[in-house]
Task: inverse folding
């Protein structure tokens, strides 16, 4: 996760707000497993104890009907009831690469942007910047 994302999360925690940090891949796998176990609703309810879910790397979720349905269920469940901070290296116009169904893509984006504040961060990737700094440091040693 990028430093600014961690800073937002920790600032919320310092204000007494319950926050869960999780990668999109991990939460999708967990929700998909819950769906297969017929316990998806219980899993979604367990996530309700967090006022804010911070989901990182949305652009790395692979197109799969089962995975994207579970992700849509989470977003639909949190709509109007809980906050989501979603980080993606893909603009909404490319989310058809994440969701395998155009209607689901549109419905997901619709729910996300309805009450959203969208921040578009331009510039170099945090991870790439850290990697380059690490390589430069190693080269100088």
Result:
């Amino acid at each position: 996760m990028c430093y600014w994302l961690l800073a937002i999360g920790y600032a919320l925690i310092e204000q007494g707000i319950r926050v869960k940090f999780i990668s999109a891949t991990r939460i999708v796998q967990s929700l998909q497993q819950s769906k297969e176990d017929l316990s998806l609703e219980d899993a979604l309810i367990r996530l309700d104890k967090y006022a804010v879910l911070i989901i990182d790397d949305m652009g790395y979720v692979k197109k799969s009907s089962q995975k994207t349905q579970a992700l849509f269920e989470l977003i639909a469940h949190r709509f109007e009831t809980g906050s989501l901070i979603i980080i993606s290296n893909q603009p909404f116009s490319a989310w058809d690469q994440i969701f395998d169904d155009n209607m689901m893509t549109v419905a997901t984006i619709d729910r996300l942007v309805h009450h959203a504040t969208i921040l578009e961060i331009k510039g170099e990737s945090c991870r790439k910047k850290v990697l380059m700094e690490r390589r430069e440091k190693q080269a100088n040693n």
The mean pLDDT is 87. Strands lie at 19-23, 52-56, 83-86. The two ends are 27 Å apart (CA to CA).
